């Protein structure tokens, strides 16, 4: 099976739809006995060349000196049932603002345990929350539309509401509710202020502690960053909204060190010099938000509204490990920024042909840069 040439709504053309039967409905470890999170497939592309592997083979596909940038944001139990008068709604808590308000999306139950898009509610709409809290819509998050609203909660602490009454956000292609632990990655760390991601940074889900230990033993480095991802649009495929991020000084230093060695700024370039590979588009957004025009990454934190496009390109990231998502999703522009349009088109064709599983519980795709041999070094002035 192939897909038509195209791109997401931000581009001039559109790719084809993914068949429903290719949606991963349950986590990998629930598909059979003695399976773990790493029991997913791994597609590897270098330019338009594509190879197929098991995810457990990842340590053999990387090399000593490679640096994996990982997102430490924990996943929140961000879906909460509520009521507007007598009408049932589902509140998706997306992003906590600096002023204590939350960006939220109101949806309506679909009768299958998930929720569908709901017609917009006006400012001043009040939602009753479990435990006696009240949520008041104040203003749209963006002039682009009224899907997400800034809202204030009174009579309850949002962290307690999520902890006592929340559940992970899930969409209709999944089979059943899963415990919050199924949505936490091995890299997730609790935030002091209770912040986290409304939706799992899913590219890191197949990693296990054993696999991480093997990677470290082979000389692969890890650089933690944080980006608290908000609620994506399952229907409109909007570009991402501003999100909170942090790139620590130690991680920025590691990224710069790997890049400098490869570019021969600290030592003659060697075949084993590493690459900066982001685990997930969230890690790309965090790192690129901290990268200057010169490609140097500096410690940074705050809010980012960066949208990585092919026109902008990537300044610090060489490769990307990502899940497989709907072709209309705006993150495909980021993939094209890393790999180029032809490579992304080829990878999507191959993923469909080989019946890869899609979405957060599905298979993954490793995008590596095309290799070019280092020039020979001669003695004397030509060195």
UniProtKB/TrEMBL annotation:
Keywords: Cytoplasm, Queuosine biosynthesis, S-adenosyl-L-methionine, Transferase. Pfam families: Queuosine_synth (PF02547). InterPro entries: QueA, QueA_dom1, QueA_dom2, QueA_sf. The keyword Chloroplast does not apply. The keyword Nuclease does not apply. Residues 111-131 are annotated as: Disordered. PANTHER family: S-ADENOSYLMETHIONINE:TRNA RIBOSYLTRANSFERASE-ISOMERASE. This is S-adenosylmethionine:tRNA ribosyltransferase-isomerase. The lineage of its organism: Bacteria, Bacillati, Actinomycetota, Actinomycetes, Kitasatosporales.
């Amino acid at each position: 099976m192939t897909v038509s040439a195209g791109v997401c709504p931000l581009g001039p053309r559109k790719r084809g739809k993914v068949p429903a039967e290719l949606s991963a409905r349950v986590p990998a470890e629930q598909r059979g006995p003695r399976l773990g999170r790493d029991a997913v497939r791994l597609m590897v592309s270098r330019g338009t060349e594509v190879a197929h592997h098991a995810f457990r083979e990842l340590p053999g596909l990387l090399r000593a000196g490679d640096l994996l940038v990982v997102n430490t944001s924990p996943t929140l139990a961000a879906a909460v049932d509520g009521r507007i008068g007598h009408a049932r709604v589902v509140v998706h808590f997306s992003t906590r603002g600096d002023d204590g308000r939350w960006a939220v999306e109101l949806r309506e139950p679909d009768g299958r345990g998930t929720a569908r898009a709901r017609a917009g509610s006006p400012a001043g709409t009040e939602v009753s929350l479990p435990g006696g809290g009240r949520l008041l819509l104040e203003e749209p998050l963006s002039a682009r539309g009224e899907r997400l609203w800034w809202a204030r909660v009174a009579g309850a602490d949002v962290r307690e509401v999520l902890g006592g009454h929340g559940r992970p956000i899930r969409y209709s292609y999944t089979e059943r509710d899963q415990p919050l632990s199924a949505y936490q990655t091995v890299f997730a760390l609790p935030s002091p202020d209770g912040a986290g991601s409304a939706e799992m940074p899913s590219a890191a889900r197949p990693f296990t502690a054993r696999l991480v230990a093997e990677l470290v033993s082979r000389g692969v480095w890890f650089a933690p960053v944080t980006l608290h991802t908000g609620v994506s649009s399952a229907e409109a495929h909007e570009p991402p909204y501003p999100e909170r991020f942090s790139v620590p000084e130690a991680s920025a230093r590691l990224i710069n060190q790997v890049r400098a060695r490869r570019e021969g700024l600290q030592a003659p370039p060697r075949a084993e010099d590493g690459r900066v590979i982001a685990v997930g588009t969230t890690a790309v957004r965090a790192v690129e938000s901290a990268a200057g025009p010169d490609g140097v990454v500096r410690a940074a934190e705050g809010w980012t509204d960066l949208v990585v496009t092919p026109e902008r390109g990537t300044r610090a990231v060489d490769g990307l490990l990502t899940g497989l998502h709907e072709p209309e999703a705006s993150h495909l522009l980021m993939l094209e920024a890393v790999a180029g349009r032809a490579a992304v088109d080829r990878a999507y064709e191959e993923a469909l042909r080989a019946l890869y599983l899609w979405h957060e519980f599905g298979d993954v795709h490793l995008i590596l840069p095309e290799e070019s041999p280092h020039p020979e070094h001669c003695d004397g002035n030509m060195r």
